[in-house]
């Protein structure tokens, strides 16, 4: 800790300043050799180590060395990455592939089989002519699908129009059968006729219910007719009895507001406890 505070440092007798190499290139000069830096990355594809047979799945994290190569694809730099196998620590190398928008495994591992890459679409083995043919075929399939969708939409629209025409024809025929009247008026008349028919049936049933077997009509007894005198006499007798009972009852007691002290219960006798008499 004290060495960083001193002004002079010790140099041994055999010190040669010419043997000290420069760790960083000066500004403005291109660095000699490839650029290598340590980065943290994930495996871009699943692979199998050729040394021990260990499977490395896609997305596994590694501390890798990134190298900028001299190769380029349309002024796009190609990078090479160095990682170590998680089991045998063998070196695995792969680099970027801007042409196929993918990665290419160089040595140390073998890329696993992938179904979507089996046909070579987008891979390194596909030429420009093959890519153009593939794109033209895709555009043709897309246009065919669009035409099919348009035909389906037209068929649906024609069916909707045919249904609307059938509904209009049915409504016109119903109006003609109604004799030129509106549909609402016809429905109202039908409802009124049905109501009148139900009322006639109810009246007939009521008339039959109030007739005897001989066909005579049963006469209804009105209130206060026949037994009116007897009921009045019974009510007068009940009122007189109630008045006599009320006169014979004594007047209610006058309420008192004194505090009543309740006598305490002797619980000791219930528990078998005997108290000694007081000496004084």
Structural commentary:
This protein has 280 residues and is of the alpha+beta class. Helices cover 37% and strands 18% of the residues. The protein has four helices and eight strands; from the N terminus they run ββββββββαααα. β5 and β6 form a beta hairpin.
Rg estimate, integer Å: 57 Å
Structural class of the secondary elements?
alpha+beta
Strand % is: 15-25%
Describe the strand arrangement of the main beta sheet, using strand numbers: 1-4-5-6-7
Shape: flat
| Mean pLDDT over the full residue set | 79
SSE ordering: EEEEEEEEHHHH
Sequence stretches where pLDDT stays below 50 over 5 or more residues: none
Question: Layout of SSEs?
Answer:
Elements: E1 35-42, E2 47-49, E3 55-56, E4 61-73, E5 76-84, E6 91-97, E7 102-107, E8 109-111, H1 128-177, H2 183-209, H3 228-248, H4 267-271
Antiparallel strand pairs: 1-4, 2-3, 2-8, 4-5, 5-6, 6-7
Q: Can you describe this structure in just a few lines?
A:
37% of the residues lie in helices and 18% in strands. The chain has 4 helices and 8 strands; from the N terminus they run ββββββββαααα.
Task: Describe this protein with a few key phrases.
single chain, 280 residues, alpha+beta, 5-stranded antiparallel sheet, 3-stranded antiparallel sheet, 8 strands
């Amino acid at each position: 800790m004290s060495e960083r505070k001193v002004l002079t440092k010790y140099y041994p007798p055999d010190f040669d300043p010419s043997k000290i190499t420069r760790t960083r290139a000066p500004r403005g000069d291109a660095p000699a050799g490839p650029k290598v830096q340590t980065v943290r990355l994930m495996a871009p594809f699943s692979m199998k180590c050729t040394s021990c047979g260990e499977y490395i799945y896609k997305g596994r994290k590694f501390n890798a060395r990134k190298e900028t190569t001299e190769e380029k694809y349309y002024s796009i730099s190609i990078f090479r990455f160095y990682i170590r196998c998680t089991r045998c620590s063998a070196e695995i190398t792969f680099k970027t592939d801007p042409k196929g928008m993918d990665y290419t495994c160089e040595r140390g591992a073998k890329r696993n089989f992938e179904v979507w890459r089996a046909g070579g679409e987008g891979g390194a083995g596909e030429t420009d002519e093959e890519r153009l043919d593939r794109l033209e075929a895709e555009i043709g399939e897309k246009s065919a699908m669009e035409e099919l969708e348009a035909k389906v939409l037209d068929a649906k629209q024609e069916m909707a129009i045919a249904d609307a025409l059938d509904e209009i024809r049915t409504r016109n025929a119903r109006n003609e059968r109604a004799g030129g009247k509106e549909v609402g008026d016809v429905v109202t008349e039908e409802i009124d006729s049905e109501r009148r028919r139900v009322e006639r049936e109810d009246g007939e049933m009521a008339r039959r219910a109030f007739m005897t077997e001989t066909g005579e009509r049963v006469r209804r007894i009105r209130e206060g007719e026949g037994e009116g005198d007897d009921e009045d006499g019974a009510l007068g007798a009940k009122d007189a009895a109630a008045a006599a009972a009320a006169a014979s009852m004594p007047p209610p007691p006058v309420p008192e507001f004194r505090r009543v002290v309740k006598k305490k219960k002797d619980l000791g006798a219930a528990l078998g406890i005997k108290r000694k008499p007081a000496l004084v």
